[in-house]
């Protein structure tokens, strides 16, 4: 048995919501009081969803982002194959050690697979 801190009634533990942060593992208010408070709060507008100033904006998808996404899709489909070595220095690498380098983001599938060292040199 536990007493609700809102209505003061003594109720069984299953009448209280679970809350791991409480010492006994249950909320201090019974489920009935919690739902009553939530209903009142919605009526008063406390829980209304509000838009940020200026409204919701779509994230900007740059040409670079679109090229990366297209290359990733091509890899998953199998139309673009990842080599087992760096295309610049030809050293053998694992697939997770290679990075995609786009010379031109408008040509999303025109990608070179480079190791980190060679990729850093290409960006300079």
Question: Largest beta sheet: what is the strand line-up?
Answer: 1-2
Radius of gyration: 28 Å
Gap between N and C termini: 70 Å
| Assembly type | single chain
Please indicate the percent range of residues in DSSP E strands (runs of 2 or more). 15-25%
Verbal overview:
- With 124 residues, this protein is α+β, with helices and mostly antiparallel strands.
- It is 30% helix and 18% strand.
- The chain has 2 domains: 43 residues, no CATH class; 61 residues, no CATH class.
- It has a two-stranded antiparallel sheet.
- A hairpin with a 6-residue loop joins strand 1 and strand 2.
- It is elongated and about 75 Å long.
Provide a short characterization of the protein structure.
The chain has helices at residues 31-44, 63-77, 116-123, and strands at 2-3, 10-11, 16-18, 26-30, 98-102, 111-115.
Key descriptive features of the protein:
124 residues; alpha+beta; two-stranded antiparallel ribbon; two-stranded antiparallel sheet; 6 strands
Itemize the secondary structure elements and their pairings.
Elements: E1 2-3, E2 10-11, E3 16-18, E4 26-30, H1 31-44, H2 63-77, E5 98-102, E6 111-115, H3 116-123
